[in-house]
Amino acid sequence: MRPVTRAFSDLHVALYRFTGGAAQHPRYPTMLLTVTGRKSGQPRTVPLIYLQDGDRLVIAAAYAGSDVDPAWWRNLRENPEAVARLRDRTVAVRAALADPTERPELWRRLVAMYPYFTEYQQRTDREIPVVVLTPRSGPT
Prior knowledge:
- By secondary structure, the protein is α+β, with helices and mostly antiparallel strands.
- The protein is about 30% helix and about 30% strand.
C-alpha cells in the first residue's frame, strides 16, 4: 500500500474507532473489515464502503482502480474468515467472490450507491471483484 494511502486508511480507522463509526459520510455506509495477513498472520483492518444485501454485506475490491487487487482481498482469498465492524456491532463473516449470475445486479447497486466505482473500473483492465460477506457463527 502506498504511504499516503496507508496514512489515510490508518487515520480513517482511528477516527471510526474513536467515534464508533459516527464520523462517516452519510451517503456511504462504511465498515471496518479486519482480515488476517496472509504473510504476517497479523490482523489487518481497513475501512470499506459496503452495501447491505439482506444479512450479507457486499463490497468492491476496487483499490481506486489500481491494476492490482487490494491487499485485503488477497488476504481474504487466502483466509476468507474476517470480522466486520458496523458502527457499534461486530459480525464474524466469511468472504466469497459474488456468484457470476448475481454480480451484475450487485455491481449495479454498488455503483448506484457510490458512483466513483464506475470511474475506478474505467481506470483498470481487471474486472473489479465484487465480494460478498456472509455472517458465520462463532466468536468475533
